[in-house]
Every structure is written in structure tokens, then in C-alpha cells.
Automatic annotation (TrEMBL):
Protein name per its UniProtKB record: Septal ring factor EnvC, activator of murein hydrolases AmiA and AmiB
Residues in the signal sequence: 1-21
GO molecular function, one term: metalloendopeptidase activity
PANTHER family: L-ALA--D-GLU ENDOPEPTIDASE, PEPTIDASE-RELATED
Keyword Glycoprotein set for record: no
Regions annotated as coiled coil: 24-114, 151-238
Key words, A-Z: Coiled coil, Hydrolase, Signal
Stored CDD domains: M23_peptidase
């Protein structure tokens, strides 16, 4: 029964250790991901340092930095809590090992003392010769062998537990050092966060003093966005009508699909939530849909897609296999490339340079053009949209972890 309990205990300990190790690895991966995101944000902001920014743009930049720093602090806290838990568990294990080791040493000392009293060969021989029968002598010989083996086993167990205790102590020391390093990094991140929030509060106070002026500025930007969105919708409608005319359909709102195009569309739909980003790295600066501005509450922001700020000279890449439907110059947004995936269309707008031509077959993650500078913000920004026929889709639902 004890044997089965011991086996069960080992299985549980192994499962817990595996879960902890997995959680530790996940937290480390998450921390590195956020640190990479922060580096990307800093790189993007550095590229616009020389340009004079409005207070609203400064607020948007600070909010991005604050949001990513808060995420990093949360992960630091989770890592520190996990290490504390591991330290507590190892401390308990060390206490139990010390108790077991002390008991083993006491038992071993007593056994050695008893063995010493009858250690000479004459005593052992007399013990055997005094047997009442051959069978009893055989049993006594076996007992003596078992006793010797037990002594050896006890000595090996003491040695093993001593090594295990040393290893746990070393592990505990390393964990405490790791925790101190994480707490030090966390303190630095918190100090930066306090500074950024102080700056943000000051900027918001300034904006509040001239809220009407900033509302007008946002309305002008919204009109420009709406104009670009309307042009994209018009071009898609024309593309549907043009391609349907070739296929013998009069519809200008829905693509007529061949069996191959329908299979491609179904495959695209099956990848919802798993599609790659249209840039290697970037930050979403404008979300999809209609929402109130976070600072100037009287202003509304609406977008048919997302705007992704990325690093200078970054390339846009196709999110899925398909065919380049059309390439157009969009006033106020450089060049737009539209890729058809059955009756789905992905739109890559504000490209300064294009690497593909209409009719080209493209594959997933293929570079299709170089992202241009957003004239209003001075940042390298991709305007990205998704449609099913003329229906606007939220890219954040389709793109992995957007």
C-alpha cells in the first residue's frame, strides 16, 4: 500500500512540476513578446521625433506606451508570484528532506553501533554454529546478507538525499536571484509608467482647455478617412461588376464564384482568427468600427478597417493566397492593392511602392509592397481592410492576436 502511495505522490509531483514549468515558459514567452512590442513602439516613435506633433498625437503615442508598459508590469507580477510559489514549495521540500536525512542518519548510527558490538568474525560464526538445524543456519545466513544489504542501502539513501538537498538549495538560491532581478525590472517599469502617466495627465489638461479646437481637428481627420473608405468601397463595387460581367452575371454587389473560387473562399473562412498580420511587426493605432474618441469625448471616430503603425521601410504582405484584383492610386493614401480570395477581399492601402501587378497569383505572407508614410501623422502606416463582397469585416476578428 505504501508503495502505491509513493508512486501516486511521485506522479502528482511530476504533473505539478510540468505545469509550473509550462506556466513559467509561457510567462517568459509573453514577457519577451511584450518587450518586443515595446521596442517596436519606440522604434516607430523615434522615426517621427523630428516632426512637430499635435497634442492629440502626443497623447496617442503616450497611451500606446502606457498600455504596453502596463501589460509588461502584469507579466512581471505574475512571474514574481510564480517564483514565490516555487520558493515556498522548495523551502517545504528542503525542510522535509532535512527531517528525513536526520532520521536516516540516526537510524544508520544506531545500526552501526549494534553492528560494532558483534562485528568480529567469531561472533558471526558462533551465531551460525549455534543454529538448531541446517535450515535455521541457512535462514541466519540470509538474514546476515540482508542486514549487510540494508546497511549499504541506508548509506546510499543518505548520500542520495544529501545530493538532493544540495541541489534544492542551489535551485532555491537561483530562484531568489531570479526573483530579485524580475522585481528590479518591475520597479524600473513602474517608475517609467508613473512618468508617462504624469505627462499624459498634463497633456490631457491642455487639451481640455481647447477641446473645441481639437474636436474640429478630429472631424477634419474623420472626413479624410471617410473619403478614403468611400473610394475603396466604390472600387470594390466596380471590380465585382467588372468580373461578374466576364462571368455572365449582372450583379454589382456579390461575386459570382466558380467552384475553385468557392473552395478558396471556404478555406479563407476556415482560417478566421488564424490569419497572419499584413506586416511583420506593428501596432494598431486606429481600431475598426465607430467609437468615441478616448480624450475628446465629443468627437466620434469611424473606420472601415484598421491602421497599423509599423517601422520605416516595412513591407506589406498578403494575409492569404489569392489573386491581385486591382491596384489603384487613392488620393490622400498613396497606392492601394486589393487581393481577391474567392468572394473575400483584403485591401492594403497607403503603399509607397508595389511589387505585384493585377492578375498576379500571390501566396500567404508574400511581400506585395512597401508601406508609405501617413501624411497626417508622419508615421509609416498601413491602412488595412477586409471585405466579403461589399460587407465590411472587422480585421481584429480575423487576424491572429490583433
Amino acid at each position: 500500500m505504501r508503495f502505491f502511495r509513493a508512486i501516486l505522490f511521485l506522479i502528482i509531483c511530476s504533473a505539478v512540476t510540468s505545469t509550473v514549468a509550462q506556466t513559467k515558459a509561457e510567462l517568459e514567452a509573453r514577457r519577451k513578446e511584450i518587450q518586443k512590442e515595446i521596442a517596436s513602439i519606440n522604434s516607430i516613435l523615434i522615426s517621427t521625433q523630428e516632426r512637430e506633433k499635435s497634442l492629440l498625437e502626443e497623447v496617442e503615442d503616450l497611451q500606446l506606451q502606457i498600455k504596453s508598459t502596463e501589460k509588461l508590469i502584469r507579466v512581471y507580477n505574475q512571474e514574481a508570484n510564480l517564483i514565490t510559489q516555487n520558493i515556498d514549495e522548495n523551502t517545504l521540500k528542503i525542510d522535509r528532506l532535512r527531517t528525513d536525512l536526520e532520521q536516516l542518519k540516526n537510524d544508520y548510527a544506531l545500526m552501526i553501533k549494534q553492528s560494532y558490538r558483534s562485528k568480529n568474525k567469531q561472533n558471526r560464526v558462533m551465531f551460525l554454529l549455534s543454529s538448531a538445524s541446517f535450515f535455521q543456519a541457512y535462514k541466519r545466513l540470509q538474514y546476515m546478507k540482508q542486514y549487510a544489504n540494508y546497511r549499504k542501502q541506508q548509506g546510499e539513501e543518505i548520500q542520495q538525499k544529501t545530493i538532493e538537498l544540495q541541489q534544492l538549495n542551489e535551485q532555491l538560491f537561483a530562484q531568489r536571484q531570479n526573483k530579485e532581478a524580475i522585481l528590479a525590472d518591475n520597479r524600473k517599469a513602474k517608475a517609467k509608467l508613473v512618468d508617462k502617466k504624469t505627462n499624459l495627465d498634463q497633456l490631457i489638461k491642455q487639451i481640455k482647455l481647447e477641446e473645441k479646437n481639437y474636436q474640429n481637428e478630429l472631424e477634419r481627420k474623420q472626413k479624410a478617412i471617410a473619403k478614403i473608405d468611400q473610394e475603396i468601397e466604390r472600387l470594390i463595387k466596380e471590380a465585382i461588376a467588372r468580373e461578374n460581367a466576364i462571368a455572365g452575371s449582372k450583379s454589382s454587389t456579390r461575386f459570382k464564384l466558380t467552384p475553385e473560387a468557392k473552395a478558396l473562399a471556404d478555406n479563407f473562412a476556415d482560417n478566421k482568427g488564424k490569419l497572419p498580420w499584413p506586416v511583420v511587426s506593428g501596432i494598431v493605432s486606429t481600431r475598426f468600427g465607430k467609437h468615441r474618441h478616448p480624450i475628446v469625448k465629443t468627437a466620434m471616430i469611424e473606420s472601415n478597417g484598421v491602421r497599423i503603425d509599423t517601422e520605416v521601410n516595412s513591407n506589406a504582405r498578403a494575409i492569404f493566397e489569392g489573386t491581385v484584383s486591382q491596384i489603384n492610386k487613392i488620393p490622400g493614401a498613396n497606392i492601394a492593392v486589393m487581393i481577391r480570395h474567392g468572394d473575400y477581399i483584403s485591401v492594403y492601402n497607403n503603399l509607397a511602392e508595389v511589387f505585384v501587378e493585377p492578375g498576379d497569383k500571390v501566396f500567404r505572407n508574400q511581400d506585395i509592397g512597401r508601406v508609405g508614410i501617413n501624411s497626417s501623422s508622419g508615421k509609416t502606416t498601413l491602412f488595412f481592410q477586409l471585405f466579403k463582397n461589399l460587407n465590411k469585416l472587422n480585421p481584429e476578428v480575423w487576424i491572429y492576436k490583433m
